[in-house]
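Input chain follows. Return structure tokens only.
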Amino acid sequence: MESYSYKNGALYAEQVPLSTLAARHGTPAFVYSRAAIEANWRAYAQAFAGRDALICYAVKANSNLAILNLMARLGSGFDIVSVGELERVLRAGGAADKVVFSGVGKHAHEIRRALEVGIKCFNVESEPELLRINEIAAQLSVTAPVSIRVNPDTDAHTHPFISTGRKEDKFGISHGQVLAAYRLAERLECVVPVGIDCHIGSQVTSLEPYIDALEKLLTLAEDLERHGIPIGHVDIGGGLGIDYHCGNLIRAGAPRSQAGSGDDTATVPDVTAFAEVLRDRVPARYHLMLEPGRSIVGNAGVLLTRVEYLKTTHTRHFAIVDASMNDLLRPSLYQAWHDIIPVTARADEREMDYDVVGPVCETGDFLGLQRPLALRPDDLLAVLSAGAYGFCMSSNYNSRPRAVELLVDDACAHVIRERETPEQLMAGEYMPEFADAMGNL
């Protein structure tokens, strides 16, 4: 998180103090660094320089129009899983012919729209889906480019909810059924196989699962070619993890009492090592595709929140903040770890272990448990690594308006999504004229 640093005890995003953003825009607030996002995408581009490759940003990680526009300006492709994501990509200036459409439950109207705008490829996840794509393509008198998503039965050793390549997972077509799926595609009049695809999961922190899945994928590609089915591209998916224990790197510039202790660094593969695995193993005759998301935006963003109350019981110290599980669901859903650091670091106060919790009426509403912090009411906290699967998974539970989103560009900060209002929460809802207990309207 190089774009976030302490300067004279104050936490900055690039050249903007986070305290200034809180004062101007309120909290909770998602803050993203343009420099970090672009640097992360360029790291992929540089790692695959000289290779016929397309980097397709996984829109589900963060689908704000401003983020997608940055990707489009860089020349990125896009990995989508809904027609809503497709419309966002198009609105943001993305090229339809650089879009791959993944997901197990594509609706007929979604397939139709994707064919109308001319996407690059459908990643097909079942034979019934293949038949549906063919039927709709016939109605439109077009040919649909398809790639079969293979389930390689590879354990990515990540959280089971975000593991997608095991045989018990809902994703993809099992290894033994792939040849039959491609033969079906060849018989159909309005689809054409153009590649082969797999995706083993998210927040993958080791290269070994990629190597295992890739070897299976390449063996299948060679088998298909021996059966006369040409394979144009190999899509290895995304899922490269990030370091969620990065707070010490930022705290190093804070006063001593907030400098942290111990080794919080989790080892994750860097983009160069990831690229070497693919470049060394995928023959040059294949067009290479990959679908990173979290590793581009995850550590480019923070969730800014304010301490409302400090509460002590016989067993716990609670820091009750104004952000909650409806803003950042990952800790409650996955028991995920996000480092939490003060926006203004203090050297003169003793730390205590706080459960950082929100106002939602759920015991599972927490952002972090037993975090060493020196706090006062009204202090600001930054929940790190919140750029991916933060706002896009947020909700209006407890009728809470969703947070403002801000994009920092050097010394400027732009509102890229306004904070919702109570009126917007109720937009589209109606109260019919019910008959009362006496039968009157």
